[in-house]
Structures
1.
Amino acid sequence: MEVYDPSGATEVTVSFAERLDTLAGKKIALLSNEMWQADRALALLRQRLQERYPDSTLVHIPAKERIQSDEVIEAIVREGYDAVVVGNAA
C-alpha cells in the first residue's frame, strides 16, 4: 500500500525576527485586536510577565482592526519597543 502526502512544499519568504536573550528590563508592547476574550488573555499574560520580569515595562496597545496598519506599526517603532506580543482570543 502506498500513502501519498497531499501537502506541498512550504516556501518561507519572510523570516521571524531574532529572539531576545531576555525580557528583563525591556519595553514590551502588548498589541491587541480587542476581539472576544483578548482583554482577559493579554491581562493574564501581562500579569505573568510582570511577575517574571519586574523591571520590564509592559504597555497595552488596543489596536482593534488597525492591528496591521502603518499607523500602529510606525507608533511601535517610534516608541522604541524592544518586543511586541500580538494577541487575539477570538
2.
Amino acid sequence: MRNYFVWIVALIAVSAQLWATSEKSGPNHLELAAMMYYDGNYTKATNELKAVERNAEDFDAARFYTISGLVAMKTKKYDKAAEYLQKAIEATKVKKFVDPYAQKQKARKHIFLRDFKKEQKRSGFDPEKIRKQKLEQLYLFLSRAYYRQKNYQKAIE
C-alpha cells in the first residue's frame, strides 16, 4: 500500500512539473513563420512574423531577423533583406547559446532525486563554434542580398 502511495505522489509531482513547464499562451509565431518559410508560403510567414511578440523574455532576435531577412529575399525585397540580415548578425554576436544536453539534464535533475553530477557527460558543445557557423551563414545570405541589389562592392566585403 505504501508503494502505491509513493508512486501516486511521484506521478503527481512529475505531472505538475511537466504541466508547469509546457504551459504557454498561444502559438509560437516565430516557429510558425519558419515553417511557412520552408513550405514556400512567404505571405503567411510575413504575417506570422508580424505577430511575434518582440518584448517577450524568450524572444530570439537572431532567429527573428534571420527568418525576416530570408523571407524578404524570397519576396525580392533585397534592401529590407539586407537590413534584417545586418540586425541578425548583430543579434547573433551577442546571443547566448545554451547546451541542449545540459538543459535536458537540468530538467531531469529537478524531476528525479538522483545525483546527476556523477552521470554528466561532456557533450562537446562549443557555443563559439556554433556562433561562428551561424555568422558565416548570415554573411553569405547578406552578400547574396547585396548581389541581388546589384551592390557588388558591398557583396564582396
3.
Amino acid sequence: MIQRFFHPIGQGAFYSERHTSCNINIVYDCGTTNPSSLAKQRVVNQSFRKDEIIHILFISHFDKDHISLIDTLKTTVQRIERVVIPLLNNEEKIFLSSIYRILGEDSLAELVSNPNEFFERETHIIGVKPSSDTEIGEITPINVSEIQSGTQIILNDLNDWVYIPFNYQYKIRSNEFQNKLKKEGIDVYKLKTDPEYILDAEVKKTIKDIYKDISGNINENSMFLYSGPLSLENSNIHYWRGRCYWRGRCWRDNIFCWHFDYYTHRCNPHRVACLYTGDSDLKKVDVTTIYSKYWDIIGTIQIPHHGSLPSFDVNVLKEKFFLCPISVGKNNSYGHPSQIVILEILSNRCFPILITEDADSTFVEIIEY
C-alpha cells in the first residue's frame, strides 16, 4: 500500500508518501510562511515517529514557505538519508543566502549555501541540473552528487515505482523580487557576487521592505516531481486508487462529489501517479511534453504556487479528470487561490481540493497493489 498525504500546513507546502510494505518514506517540501507557529510545527511532528527514516526529501526550490520547517522535520525523525535539490550556481547561492541572512533566517541561509553542513554528514545530497530539454533519462544510481533533470530514481524494494525530478531552466526569466530590488537602487550583481554587500544598513532595510511587499517568490526555478509507476503496460504489479479522505469524508470506487449534489465525476482508478509542481509556472513549462510518457498514469496534479493565477495554465487539465490539491493559508494576503483558477478547474470537470491549516483539510490518497 502507498499512502499519499497533503498535510495541513496552510500557506506553504508539505507532502509525503509512505510505502507501507517496505517502510519507505518520501517527502516533497516542508515549509510554511510562519514556521514559528507551534501548530505548524506540530503538523510536522505528528506526521512521523521518532524512529522513522525519511529516505528521500525532495526540495522544489528555496523559497521560505517551502523549506522553513525542514529543521523541525530533521528533529522529528531518526534521520534523513537523501536530499534531492535543484542545483544552484555560486551566484544563486550567494544571492539567496544573503537575502535570508538579511531577514534573520540564518538556518535557511546555511541550507542554501552549504546543504551538506545543514543536514550533516549522514545525509547524501543530490543536485538536479537545470535543463530546458524535455527528455526523460534512464534509471540512475542514487549514490551520485549530481543528476540530470528527468533522471529516474528508484529505491530498493519499491518494485517499479519511480520518482522523476525535473529542474526546468527557463529561457526567459522574469523575477518580481529582483526587478523591485533594481528599481529601489539595490545592486543585484553585488548581491550575487559579494557576501559583504549586505552589511550596509540601508541595503538591509530596503531589501527587508521589498520582501514584505512580494508574495514570497524570491527563487526563479521550481523543481517538478513525478511520483508513480514506471508504466502500467509492462508491469507485473497492478496499481489502483482505493480510497481518498478529505474534510472528514471517504470516497470509494473513485466517485468524487463536490459540494453540490449535481457535481459528480468518475475517475480512472489506475491513474495513481502524482505530479508535484512546487511554485512552477505552468504557462512557461510544458509538463505534458516533459512527462508525456507518463501522462495517462497521472491522476493528481498539485496546483502550483497556492493557486496563483499567473502560474496556472488550464491546458494542463484538458481532456482528463484530475484531483487538484492546492496548499493555501485561510487568511493569506495574496488572494490565493485565484477564483479564476478554481473556476477553470471546475469547468474542466476536475476537482479542486484546498489544503489549509485545518486538520480536516488533510488530503490522503490510498493506493493499493
